[in-house]
Structures are given as structure tokens and as C-alpha cells.
Description:
Blueprint: H1 4-31, E1 42-46, H2 61-66, E2 71-74, E3 85-89, H3 90-94, E4 111-115, E5 133-136, E6 143-144, E7 148-152, E8 168-173, H4 182-190, E9 196-199, H5 209-216, E10 219-225, H6 236-244, E11 248-252, H7 256-260, E12 269-270, H8 277-288, H9 291-295, E13 304-308, H10 312-317
Parallel strand pairs: 1-2, 1-3, 3-4, 4-5, 5-6, 8-9, 8-10, 10-11, 11-12
Antiparallel strand pairs: 7-13
Amino acid sequence: MTRPLPLTLLILFMIISLIYGWLFMLNEQNHHFSNGSLKTNITILLWHWPFGIQYSLAGDVCLKDYGIAGCHLIDNRSLMESANLVVFHNAELKYRKEHLPLDLPRPASQRWVWLSLEAYNGNLAAYKNLFNLTMSYHPQADITVPYGKLIVKERPSQDFVIPKNKSHEVCWVVSNYQKWQSRSAVYQKLRQNINVQVYGYFVKRPLRMAALLPTISQCYFYLAFENTESRHYITEKLWRNAFLAGAVPVVLGPPRGDYEEVAPPKSFIHVNDFNSTEELAKYLRSLTKDPEKYNAYFTWRQNYTVKLYTDWRERLCNICPLYERFPIKKIYKDLGTWTKW
Length: 341
Ligand SMILES: *[C@@H]1O[C@H](CO)[C@@H](O)[C@H](O)[C@H]1NC(C)=O
Ligand SMILES: *[C@@H]1O[C@H](CO)[C@@H](O)[C@H](O)[C@H]1NC(C)=O
Ligand SMILES: *[C@@H]1O[C@H](CO)[C@@H](O)[C@H](O)[C@H]1NC(C)=O
Ligand SMILES: *[C@@H]1O[C@H](CO)[C@@H](O)[C@H](O)[C@H]1NC(C)=O
Ligand SMILES: *[C@@H]1O[C@H](CO)[C@@H](O)[C@H](O)[C@H]1NC(C)=O
Ligand SMILES: *[C@@H]1O[C@H](CO)[C@@H](O)[C@H](O)[C@H]1NC(C)=O
């Protein structure tokens, strides 16, 4: 009975420590494993489907289709409070088809992700201090989602075929032709010096998806002309229409350096490499007459295969492995600067 107070305090202290440690452990399990492995059980809410096209989220999509564990995609807005991240695709916000849930409670730890794969995104002034992360094709985005990429083969191999049955010099698929775009000016001048076979709604010759690659494979060159010339904006026009089809891409878009960051220098021809469209046309024609030089534009295939990204679910699942690397706290004060890249 000599030291009742300190003893009581000591016991109290031990109990508090235990409870605290236990809570901390729970917290650790929720956030990441102490052995440094990634947090699992991340919930990503997609607020609305891009361009209104809905895909099934039944089952563990990320694990089943992409081998990513503990990554849950949901599109049920009533579960917003349980989401670690909420993803908003810009196009629908831009056209006011969808709105940010600014009236709903937003958990402090929840991150809002601004998603766009377009180069032109409209006026983003309304989105100050709302988003924590950006998701875009741009390499400086928090989550970079390219339209495609090259994957290094385990060992160099010749197991690729250069389509031999070429019936057109140059081909182009274009649906939304706008006279004022610089790609249109280049096309108009180019066609005066070389045959350009055009498909798409522009010329009322749309190609079914199944016919797209077989058709382009019959062309020596494909005009992988982007609708907007914006840094790092390189779309499926390069990855799918040209590379996968087996036509050499003639590119118009960001500078050559941006292309070289994602593809070997000798895998494409950049319109800026020429002083005039006449010179470009002359060069293209010379390659059609010189199989050795032409085929040199395919040797990169010894070392790489093309990976195309088309499924929004895959893009969203790929967020999870990055989760631990996101900044603890980040707020985009002004998304408007995004478009100036
Ligand atoms: C880390 O711990 C988790 C959960 O116990 C386990 O699933 C994972 O395999 C461990 N990772 C490593 C690298 O040991
Ligand atoms: C994952 O998180 C959800 C929502 O927070 C929760 O309902 C579920 O029980 C968790 N699952 C696991 C395996 O921890
Ligand atoms: C080559 O292309 C022509 C014209 O499209 C087609 O008729 C022919 O079947 C093709 N031949 C081969 C071997 O693919
Ligand atoms: C373009 O013009 C410059 C200056 O006249 C010249 O040095 C260069 O070789 C030309 N480039 C090509 C690809 O012809
Ligand atoms: C493919 O990779 C090998 C080994 O790294 C290299 O020696 C070769 O030059 C590469 N081929 C091409 C066409 O880049
Ligand atoms: C996300 O942004 C909101 C709104 O600016 C902010 O209140 C919140 O602290 C941010 N959360 C994180 C994890 O960065």
C-alpha cells in the first residue's frame, strides 16, 4: 500500500500502450504491410464511364484479367464513402453531362482523380482545389496511361512478318476531317506528290474494326497524324493503326523527341524531318522501290512487341500498384495549366 498511485498509473499506461499498439497495427494493415509490400484492398470508384460506354465490373476484374490483387473497381456511387479514389473522366464534365458530387461528404483521405486521354480538355477553371491526382497520357501525370507501348522481348527474335502484299503507297483513315487542322494541310499537299488512299467517314468509306488492320497492312505507309499537336500526345494512330497493322508510320504530332521516348528512332518517319512535303513524298516513294531500306523500318520488331491499351478497366486497375507512391497530400490548385503542356 506504499505506492498505489504510481502502480495504478503504470498499469494504466501499459493498457493504453497495448490499445494504442493494437490500433496502430490495424491501421498498418489497412494502409500497407509493415514488410513493405503494397497496400491491398484499394477501392476505386469510377464516377461515370468514359463516353458512356459501360463495362462489367463483376467479379475481381483486376485480379482475374490483369493479375492485380486487392484492387476493387466499383461504379456504384452510393459506395462513395468507401472509395480510396474517385475517378472523374473529363469529357462528360466538359459537356455537363455529369457533375462533381460537391454536395456529398468527402472522406479526408479520399483522392479525386482527374482523367483525360485527350489533348484538348476545355476550360478547367472550375476545377480549382478539387483534384488530388491527374491521369493522362502525359508522362508527368500522377498516373500515366499511354495509348500503347513497346514491350522488350526476352530475347531478340525474327518471329515477325513484314506484310509483303502492298497495294498502296500511303494510307490514311480519317473520320473527323477539319480543314483548319495542320494534318489536313499536310495531307492536301502530300497527295499532289504521292498516292494517298483514304478511308473513314471523311470520304464515306468507313472501315469496320475487323477490316482496319488487314486493310492498312496493304499500305507501305500510314499517316499517323494526330488531330492535335500537343507534347507527348501519341495515340492509337501510331500503336494500332500503323505498328500493329505493319505499315510504316508517317507521324505528325509532338516533336520527334517525344516519339523517340516511346519508340525506336528508326521505327517511324516524322513529317518534320523534311523541309517540304515534296521531299517527304520523294523519300516515301524511294523506300517503296528499295525493299532493304524499307524493311529497315521494321527491324525494331526483333526486340519489341506492341502492347495496346484500350480497356478502361485495365487502366483503372493499373492505378493500384502506384498507390503507395502517391504524395501524402496533393491538391491541384489549377488544372488549367494542364492543357498548356
Ligand atoms: C508481406 O506481408 C504480406 C501480408 O502478410 C504478405 O502477403 C506478403 O507476401 C509479404 N511480402 C513479402 C515481400 O514478404
Ligand atoms: C476491403 O474494403 C471494403 C470496403 O472498405 C470492405 O468492405 C472489405 O471487407 C475489405 N476486404 C478485405 C479483404 O479487407
Ligand atoms: C493482296 O492484296 C490484294 C488486294 O487487296 C488481294 O486481292 C490479295 O488477296 C492479297 N494477297 C495476299 C496474298 O494477301
Ligand atoms: C533542309 O534544308 C536545310 C537548309 O537548306 C538543309 O541543310 C537540310 O539538309 C534539308 N533537309 C533535308 C532533309 O533535305
Ligand atoms: C536488339 O537488341 C540487341 C541486344 O540488345 C541489339 O544488339 C540489337 O542491335 C537490337 N536490334 C535492333 C534492331 O535494335
Ligand atoms: C485532396 O483534395 C482535397 C480537396 O482539395 C483536400 O481537402 C484533401 O486533403 C486532399 N487529399 C489528399 C490525400 O491529398
